[in-house]
Amino acid sequence: MLTRSGWAAGALSIVLIAAGRILGVFDLFVIGAVVGAVLLAATIWVAMARIRLSVDRTVRPARVHAGDASRVELAVTNVARRRTPVLQLTDPVTGTPGATAEVGPVKVGQTSRLAYQLPTERRGVLSIGPLRLEISDPLGLASVKMVAAPRAEVTVYPRIHPVTAVATTLGNDAQNRSAAHHGIGRVGDDFYALRDYVVGDDLRRVHWPTTARRGEIMVRQDELPWQGKLTLLLDLRRSVHTPGSFELAVSAAASLLVASSTRHDLVRLRTTDGGDSGFGAGHAHLDAIMEYLATTSPSGHGSLRSVLSSLRSSGGGAFVGVTANGAPDELGELLRTGRSFASVYVIDVRPSAWDPAAPPDFEPERPGVVTVHGGADFATAWERAVRTGGRMQRATT
């Protein structure tokens, strides 16, 4: 395949040959023929440049939070019987011109390694590749392109702020079906009760003194682990968000979910468009929530009131609502919903938090409302609320 320079050389060759014939200038004819011969030789050189490469592309890590480092590592191994010519590698990356690099001649059996950093400042899914390999002649007149590695994806989770987790609270536990904490540890090894033996029970749990006394096999019933619970409602309504407020709200929600999940609490994400992760714990559950938050966007449908109505019947644990530009009546409704929970906080992202030109916010402090504004980012406002309020208390609004 001819490059742009190759097409220009071909056109020049034709013009010179034609001019030499028409004007009878033999020198022009010869120069045109030489240019054409060079172009033909370049094309043949590229066509004969048979190469065999093993290209390995690794993304480390493939899932990352916004602002954290992620890089692509390339290993080009020559498995042919002769060294390679100069190689041009191009790896497209979403939102950027892509990564381009030149690899010098690689000897037989040797590997050339290179790497580049990925832009991870914004959450979302980065599409990488397909990696294209280009070989051209020394004059750059002809080239051949091929795909060296398939398309890959990197998921950029929301930015995480290191914040204090929501204070441990009592409430119904979706896993152990216990209505409250029984005053035991979180490890689940404490003695709870005795019950009749059931086929399949571990014989090591037989309580022999009671078995001997009653004449029936009795086994120890140990209490299952007790876990704190967090229900987090993220307001996705397009009517209350700007691009800046939405990113801050998603980041705040992700930070609290990560903090509670790290403490092995049960976490649940609800959204105003009807999304519901259900209660769960562990890396798999948290990763599923982060995958969702990485790609979510403001929604034109959904109702805050209907979601809050459904939450009032599923209380227990802690409740955190995250919204922006909250109207007083909506903030009050969020706080009232929290009465069915052991504790509640509402995070309200104000315009000055993302727009330096916005006037300062002088909203009066409301119990249970954490206001994020130009003078206090989310982490600062949250830590101050936790520090001044101690354990999160049930809202009184």
Describe the structure.
This protein is α/β, with parallel strands linked by helices. It contains eight helices and 17 strands. The strands form five sheets. The chain has a five-stranded parallel β-sheet with strand order 14-13-15-16-17, sandwiched between helices. Helix 1 (4-23) runs antiparallel to helix 2, helix 4 packs antiparallel against helix 5 and helix 6 (304-311) runs parallel beside helix 7 (328-337). The longest helix has 23 residues, at 26-48. Residues 170-189 and 390-397 have low confidence and may be disordered.
Strand content: 25-35%
Q: What fraction, in percent, of the residue positions are helical?
A: 25-40%
CA-based gyration radius: 33 Å
End-to-end CA span: 73 Å
Number of helices: 8
Count of β-strands: 17
Order of helices and strands: HHEEEEEEEEEEEHEEHEHHEHEEH
List unreliable stretches of 5+ residues.
Answer: 170-189, 390-397
Q: What descriptive keywords fit this protein?
A:
397 residues; alpha/beta; five-stranded parallel beta sheet; four-stranded antiparallel beta sheet; 8 helices; 17 strands; 28% helix; elongated; disordered C terminus
How are the SSEs ordered, and which strands pair?
Blueprint: H1 4-23, H2 26-48, E1 53-60, E2 63-65, E3 71-78, E4 87-91, E5 99-103, E6 111-117, E7 124-128, E8 131-136, E9 143-149, E10 152-157, E11 191-196, H3 208-214, E12 218-222, E13 229-234, H4 243-262, E14 266-271, H5 283-295, H6 304-311, E15 318-324, H7 328-337, E16 343-349, E17 369-372, H8 378-389
Parallel strand pairs: 2-10, 13-14, 13-15, 15-16, 16-17
Antiparallel strand pairs: 1-3, 3-6, 4-5, 4-8, 7-10, 8-9, 11-12
Helix pairs in contact: 1-2, 4-5, 6-7
